[in-house]
Amino acid sequence: MRGLWTTARVKAAEDRVMARVPAGSLMRRAAFGVATVALEVLAGRRRVGLLVGAGNNGGDALWAGYYLRRRGVSVAAVLLDPPRAHAEGLAAFRRAGGRVVERLVDVDLVIDGIVGLSGRGPLRPAAAEHVAHLDAPVLAVDSPSGVDPDTGAVDGPAVRAAVTVTFGCLKPVHALADCGDVRLVDLGLGAELAGPDLLELEVSDVGAAWPVPGPTDDKYTQGVTGIAAGSATYPGAAVLATGAAVLATSGMVRYAGAAAEHVRSRWPEAICTGSITDAGRVQAWVVGPGLGTGLGAEGVLRAVLEAGVPVCADADAITMLANNPDLWDARDPDTPLVLTPHDREYERLAGKVGDDRVAAARRVAEKFDAVVLLKGHATVVAGPDGRVLVNRARTSWAATAGSGDVLSGLIGALLAAGVDPLLAAGCAARVHVLAAELAADGAPIPASSLLASVPDAIRAVRPLSSP
Ligand SMILES: NC(=O)C1=CN([C@@H]2O[C@H](COP(=O)(O)OP(=O)(O)OC[C@H]3O[C@@H](n4cnc5c(N)ncnc54)[C@H](O)[C@@H]3O)[C@@H](O)[C@H]2O)[C@@H](O)CC1
Ligand SMILES: Nc1ncnc2c1ncn2[C@@H]1O[C@H](COP(=O)(O)OP(=O)(O)O)[C@@H](O)[C@H]1O
Ligand SMILES: [K+]
């Protein structure tokens, strides 16, 4: 797992390290790292432009310009706020033969030192004007300017980076927003940084957590997944959610609901019944996709919440819980619940998501004592214990009708197998993103194609040496 630390924590750690190392040494180390990556990106080309803001981020850029000059690179700098430009950095840059210019022209690479960890809000107009005219790739210092370093939110003009060089540790922006290729320069903060604020699962974490059958397993021992989804109007949601559970793990899937005939004809291996009361025992329920919100659906949701097994509540189940708070009373407080809202469903539960998606997911996780998976290009999974996993998609092909039904089926299968609910939601999100990528391969896909790629996505995360 990769840890991510919020800017307040990073600044505090940097201050403690700075108190015991020579003045300016951290900045020089950071800037040397920027120059090293810049040389790699330049691959022999020799013209660099700097966009230099008023703070230490601009100082890093100027010092990087100094190191690049020493390697014979031609470097020009635009100072966005000349009186506040980093004094030592600017002096070193000029000494090494760096030029201060009004505008960047004919450069092979731009170094964005406009604003870093203290940046808030979009680029100011003068910076935005320079950025709008760039035609060279951009290397962002610490984070792309105009993108909020703590939330990844973009609310106006911002830098689009091909590569970001960051220092000390990763910050939330590096997992929540597009920073291009992210490179980390060690500043020796390690001992000063306690546990991270957010975590990002790596492929190996997902592979290690994904349940596979062992020699002593049979179809019951691996956890039976129950799917309470679909309706006469929306049978497809039942077919997709059941299919995802069938493909995610071995063992057994039970379907209960009005789409039993549709599900049976598509997934003959699922045990299908028309009603939840006839469903038999399961180790986790998925409830909600395509279920409707009428009295019958409420009865199903109540039965699932009372069943005493982990539940993944999605789509109409979230809407019912938002509209009828009495339904919460059916829940066994000791049984894990995973809620998987998109932004509009979130709004029904707890008001607008806002710019800080991590804080939003945390609020609802705490309020309902549940794991909350907030969907989107960057999926945020928050646990009631304060742990947060983030998972950013590299493409947006999953933004297609029915893809959420697939996700809930994956989560349900992992819950039934006994995976920790936060990890279950995080691993499912990761495999879902990968399945979308593999299925799309550059062209739009229906959710059924995403579903068909689930086995390939699981193969891709599993350890190579495993059977
Ligand atoms: N603290 C340290 O030990 C180190 C800091 N380093 C660098 O220092 C940076 C942080 O520097 P600072 O705290 O001086 O602040 P920044 O350089 O991030 O920002 C400078 C100022 O820009 C203004 N600003 C805020 N949002 C803006 C926006 N959207 N558009 C334009 N201007 C805006 C604010 O007045 C802010 O104080 C890090 O990102 C990193 O690049 C590195 O040198 C490594 C060591
Ligand atoms: N822009 C995007 N990039 C990547 N994934 C996305 C994007 N928008 C939505 N998704 C993902 O697609 C799925 C959509 O789920 P949902 O909105 O519930 O759809 P449905 O109800 O039609 O099944 C979620 O997993 C979500 O994270
Ligand atoms: K920057």
UniProtKB/TrEMBL annotation:
The protein's superkingdom reads Bacteria
The protein's UniProt keywords, in alphabetical order, are: ATP-binding, Isomerase, Kinase, Lyase, Metal-binding, Multifunctional enzyme, NAD, NADP, Nucleotide-binding, Potassium, Transferase
In short, the EC number is 4.2.1.136, 5.1.99.6
Q: Which GO terms describe its biological process?
A: metabolite repair; nicotinamide nucleotide metabolic process
Q: Which GO terms describe its molecular function?
A: ADP-dependent NAD(P)H-hydrate dehydratase activity; ATP binding; kinase activity; metal ion binding; NAD(P)HX epimerase activity
Record-listed (6S)-NADPHX binding positions: 56-60, 116-122, 142, 237, 290, 342, 405
Entry binding sites for K(+): N57, D112, S145
Which CDD domains does the UniProt entry name for this protein?
Answer: YXKO-related (cd01171)
Binding note for cofactor: Binds 1 potassium ion per subunit.
Q: Which cofactor does it need?
A: K(+); Mg(2+)
InterPro entries named among the record's database cross-references? Carbohydrate_kinase_pred_CS, CARKD, Nnr, Ribokinase-like, YjeF_N_dom, YjeF_N_dom_sf
The yes or no answer to whether the keyword Ubl conjugation is present is: no
UniProt record similarity statement: Belongs to the NnrE/AIBP family.
Its recorded name reads Bifunctional NAD(P)H-hydrate repair enzyme
